[in-house]
Amino acid sequence: MNEEQFNALLESVRQADEIIQGKAKAARVLEFAEPEVKSIRAKTGLTQERFANVLGVSKRTLENWEQGRRHPTGPARALLKILDADPIHALEALNH
Questions:
Q1: First and final CA of the chain: distance in angstroms?
Q2: What is the DSSP letter of 35?
C-alpha cells in the first residue's frame, strides 16, 4: 500500500467515525424492505408448521413474523428472499 492509498483509507475511517458519532450524515443509506413472510409462505403452499421447519425456526417464531411482532434476521431473512424469488427450486434444493 502506498502513502496515497493509506491516506485515502485513513480519511474514510475518519469519515466513518464522524458518521458513527453523529457529526456527519452518510452519503447514502441502503434500506431493505421487510420480507412479507405470510405471502412468501403462501407462494410455497406450505402450512405454518412445514414452512417453519424449512426455515429452521419454531412455529411460534413464524407466527410472530407473519403478524409483524418480530422480524427475521440473518440467515432466515436470506432464505426468505430466496424462497420469495424462486419457491419451487428453493424447496427442491431444501429437499422438501
A1: 50
A2: P
- The span from the CA of 80 to the CA of 84, in Å, is 6
Q: Is the pLDDT of residue 96 over 70?
A: no
Q: Which three cell numbers stand for residue 87?
A: 419457491
Using the structure block, give the residue that is written with the C-alpha cell 419451487.
88
Question: CA 10, CA 96: separation in Å to the nearest integer?
Answer: 49
Residue pair 54/46 in contact (Cβ under 8 Å)? The answer is yes
Burial class (CB in 10 A: 0-12, 13-18, 19+), 43: middle
**Helices 74-85, 37-44: crossing angle, 10 deg rounding:** 50
Which three cell numbers, joined as nine digits, stand for 48? 405454518
pLDDT, one tens digit per residue, over 36-92 is 999 999 999 999 999 999 999 999 999 999 999 999 999 999 999 999 999 999 999
Whole-prediction pTM? 0.68
